[in-house]
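Severity: low
Component: inverse-folding endpoint
Summary: output formatting inconsistent between runs
Steps to reproduce: submit the following structure tokens with default settings.
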């Protein structure tokens, strides 16, 4: 993979782990999610007039990716409602490369080498280890795992749709712009449900909201741009190196425990990610 693409995706992974940490620590997560949607919507509005529009053939992919993204927000909010960052994030992001690899095989004709397949097994083992750090004795634990895995499935859905769509668009920046514009219904929903809290949270936590929005723009946009020029499975897997970053943020910054098991499992996932990416 081109070193420039590798750098862009790794940077996107760091940004993505960072804004997920901001979502986890927010007093009202739905309002913070609206900051993500609003930032992406505004970025799309500002850039769309200055870049070529995506080819009409890619609009179906934009529609599918948008629907998956809406479902992703729902699953992510519920996952953080029940679980810790250092548990939810590796489960959600670590399960996605496996599903993206399968989707790339069936829908894009991409294939995995033997070592990449080994990487998939390692990543899956790490995911299982994270899920079994505790034996899920409570309804809350089971809900956290279920929503985290559902989040991973939604990530895989929009990743494959984006990969197919941005390649067919003949305009990566046009595709990204219009995909961001489609975030508007999320903003409307949040305003409707949280109008009373919106001004209060915005005035008190505006640095976190701004940071979340900016990080989300580049985290998502850079990966879509990268997948226009590189295979979907390696890009998705490389982005999920963010699981190690999230595990470190969760254990060191947020004080989540048990730290040894969480970080060890996250590193196992990352090892699988490296094999998928470099073969």
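Observed output (run 2 of 3):
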């Amino acid at each position: 993979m081109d070193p420039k693409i590798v750098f862009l995706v790794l940077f996107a992974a760091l940004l993505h782990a960072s804004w997920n940490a901001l979502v986890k620590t927010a007093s009202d997560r739905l309002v913070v999610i609206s900051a993500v949607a609003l930032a992406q919507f505004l970025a799309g509005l500002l850039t769309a007039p200055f870049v070529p529009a995506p080819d009409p053939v890619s609009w179906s992919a934009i529609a599918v990716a948008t629907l998956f993204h809406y479902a992703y927000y729902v699953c992510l909010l519920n996952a953080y409602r029940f679980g810790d960052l250092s548990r939810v994030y590796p489960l959600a992001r670590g399960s996605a490369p496996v599903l993206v690899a399968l989707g790339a095989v069936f829908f894009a004709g991409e294939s995995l080498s033997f070592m990449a397949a080994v990487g998939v097994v390692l990543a899956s083992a790490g995911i299982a280890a994270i899920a079994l750090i505790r034996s899920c004795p409570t309804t809350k634990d089971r809900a956290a795992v279920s929503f985290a895995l559902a989040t991973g499935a939604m990530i895989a859905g929009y990743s494959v749709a984006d990969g197919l769509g941005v390649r067919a668009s003949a305009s990566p920046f046009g595709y990204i712009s219009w995909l961001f514009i489609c975030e508007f219904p999320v903003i409307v929903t949040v305003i409707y449900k949280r109008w009373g809290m919106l001004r209060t949270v915005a005035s008190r936590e505006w640095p976190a909201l701004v940071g979340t929005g900016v990080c989300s723009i580049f985290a998502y946009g850079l990966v879509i741009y990268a997948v226009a020029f590189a295979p979907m499975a390696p890009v998705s897997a490389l982005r999920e190196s963010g699981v190690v970053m999230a595990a470190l943020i969760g254990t060191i910054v947020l004080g989540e425990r048990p730290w040894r098991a969480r970080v060890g499992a996250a590193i196992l996932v990352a090892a699988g990610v490296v094999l998928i990416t470099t073969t």
